[in-house]
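If I may wish for something, please walk me through the protein I am sending here so I can picture the backbone:
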Amino acid sequence: MYLNFWPAVYVDDVLFGHHDIAELKRIRDQLIGLLNRGGFELRKWVLGIGWNPRLDVFQVAVSVSESVLFTKRAILSTIARLFDPLGWVVPATISTKIILQQLWRSKVGWDDPIPETIACRWNSIYGNLSQLNQVRLNRWAALELDSERADLHGFSDASNVAYAAAVYLRVVSRSGDVKVTLLAAKSRVAPVNSLTVPRLELCAAVLLSRLMEFVRDALEIDRSSCICWTDTIIVLAWLDCHPSHWKTFVANRVAEIRSRLPDVDWRYVPTAENPADCASQGLLGSELLSHSLWWHGPPWLRSSANSWPQVDRQLPATSLLETKPHCGVDYAGPILVRSSPGRGHASRKAYVALFICLATRAVHLELVSDYSSPTFLHAFSRFCSRRGLPSSVYSDNGTTFVGADCELTAAYRTAIRNTDFQNSIAQDNVA
């Protein structure tokens, strides 16, 4: 019994299933007989949520009175009657909790009239709660023993008033058909002590990690088949680094996420395609009924992975714009060189002139025989012939470069009087 039923036992309740009806009945009979021997009689069903066996669908049951009471006590009573253990209708129920938090902030008494602005909002929300009775969710998620692939996709999002997470099962059949089903969702009202939206988004990611771990363990889905999505680049950057890089608030939550989901891939999803946005912003019951993004996830989940959102690394603006050719120059060495191979040819000292592009860090090397200014000018001439004329050249105050600067300046002043030279440098944009 321990091996078969222990993971499915919660206090005095047992919940289990099987892919084969005949095998399921056999297990049921064994369980009843085994418990009867110990004096434990199974007496009731514990599903807890509405199930239509004829259509094989789950349905939400919401009982609300026709008269609306505008007090904090009545609102809390209504919230307590909304039984939604797997969070299928949290986009509608989170709005009621946000209303209650606003009442706590306004310090309204239990039976005092609520402010008019909140009363109008509550009247609209309450009038649509009965629409949730029309919610139908397929019990079977198309997960079979011979399915081609089964992936879990989790989405998280936050707003100024709430944050939420939702988990979907994506199943690819042998025939290539793809079905996406909402499995579970969670939502939380934002703390009374306000946090920045990026920190709330991180709280949503923590909520998703807990929910994803729970669902993955329940379904025994392989860890490599789990993908988490968020619409905040900041959260992805936090998760990319070790927790020690961040301050306490961020570090603690990043550490928890990485410990719960060490091998899960975190990716970016645009806000408009993030189903968790429905639960962080809130929807009316009538809006939720036909909200395809919430019930089936973004449309691209039903396509191949090539069509899923991709985030290209943003390059610095300086890497995308054309820059003027500025370079630096310096000497390396000395090194020993030979003019030709073989014996009888003595080695002699030489140096290497390094020309470094200040934009791309590209390096050009020229061999020079000594430290003299004329030798450097020859090397500089070869560099310009091969790479082009730079806009400026930077160096230290070495005697070679100072002397070369003086010679170039003197030669320029002499040659500038020549008309042909003027035309030549004008074509090269030399001023």
The domain at 326-339+346-428 is CATH 3.30.420.10 (Nucleotidyltransferase; domain 5). The first helix runs from residue 2 to 5. The chain has 15 helices and 14 strands.
